[in-house]
Amino acid sequence: MRCILVDDEPLALDVLSSYLEKVEGVQLVARCTNPLEAIRILSEEAIDLVFLDIEMPNLSGIDLVKSLDRLPQFIFTTAYPQYALEGFDLNATDYLVKPVPFPRFLKAIARAKEKHEAGQKPTEIKANATLAVPQESLPDFIFVKSEYENIKINTADIKYLQGLKDYIKIYTNQGDKAILTLSSF
Questions:
Q1: Could you give the C-alpha distances from 83 to 15, 34, 77, 97, 142, in angstroms and in order?
Q2: pTM, entire model
């Protein structure tokens, strides 16, 4: 697996680099102290795994992940445990809290290798996930409640749905129609 490290703290990069030297099957391609440099490398190189800090100047690790179209596996390495839920919502392979103990690092690497060997690529799954429903089994329209009113939406006009934490936004051929809470289902 080809890997890069992204952290604005050189000491953190040194620790992770020393850990990676002890692991077979993972090649360190680059160490980045600037997340914008990491974006450049990710666009030019075939990278399988990214170790990524969250709190960095210019661009947070969370925002870096959200900005990429094609995303390799990534493992957050941060001093902030409160971002873990958001990290896993972005399909993080793992979430390591600094200081990272070596046994915990090995567990994260094992998880990444397992996914890599299985051919699982989180972004491809996320980006290409579709639900194939035979057209004849769909009703002609649905009613959804949005902003205290019922809205009729023709099912043939639905282009896609976007998950927004506790909400779903419905995009149709006429533009975005409704934002619904998940509890309304």
A1: 21, 20, 11, 10, 36
A2: 0.64
